[in-house]
Amino acid sequence: MAHSTSSDELLRSILDANETYAAAFAKADPALLKKLAKGQSPRIFWLGCSDSRVSAELATGVAPGSIFVHRNIAQCFHPGDLSASAALAYAVHVLKVESIIVCGHTGCGGVRAGMQAAVDGRDEPQEAPQPGSVADTISKWIKPVRFRSPAPPFPAVSFSPPLSPSLPARPQITHLADLQISTDSARSPLDDFSLAELTDTHVAETVFAVANSDIVKAAWAEGRELTVHGWVYHVETAKLRDLECGWKGSAFLGLPFLLSCSGSGVLTRPRRCVTVDERAPSLSRPVTSADAERVGDE
């Protein structure tokens, strides 16, 4: 994509815009500027995607100092990710936030890349990317998304044993029939329908991972009124949607997310549902380093 301005011109325009912003801020709310200079006391920790279209402050309309933010590709929470763990620990135990929001978004390139790699890799083993390459780095990062991508026929959500005795069973992918899609020639396993379903599931699973972290469980052990929630930002409308898949202590707040439960323990979500007879076709396109480029795709 060609740009009409040079990099230097772009940076200059940003600095000029900051001058305008600073002057307007100082005129509109000088007291808030003085308050922010003394420190921060946000009530919310936001774990969101690095996507340039999704800004926590703009999406929520709150003032500076209201949200403590950590962002990465596809809003993942890896147990070994020191950066995310440090941000969460600081927010929970130093800033004493009251709520944690895991926020995904529609058209997420990271989720799409993980889904593409999962679908493509089923037909035949693919050569692993060169260690240290761009593809290798991104592939490792989106691994949780890739492993949540269901194999055709697309699965339902069911209960699995909790990762911790202090938490009840959580929603997890199993090979049944919920995230199925039409076999119509105009659609594929990677259409907006299945991407939206996987985005919701990934957010819910990340909410569980955060809730099951030692950092959050320690706060609950202290009697803290800390809640963890899952939201999705719709880029096309700029609106936020609460998935209602939250946790407060050992209590799951997300019954509306699960909606119904059969006697066998299989949970279904009628939203965007299709018939159980539909099956997704298997794709055979090889996985290449180009998958990494999808992370930035709309």
Automatic annotation (TrEMBL):
Catalyzed reaction equations: hydrogencarbonate + H(+) = CO2 + H2O
Name the UniProt record assigns to this protein: Carbonic anhydrase
Cofactor field: Zn(2+)
Function description: Reversible hydration of carbon dioxide.
Pfam families for the chain: Pro_CA
Assigned protein family: Belongs to the beta-class carbonic anhydrase family.
Cofactor annotation remark: Binds 1 zinc ion per subunit.
Upper classification of the organism: Eukaryota, Fungi, Dikarya, Basidiomycota, Pucciniomycotina
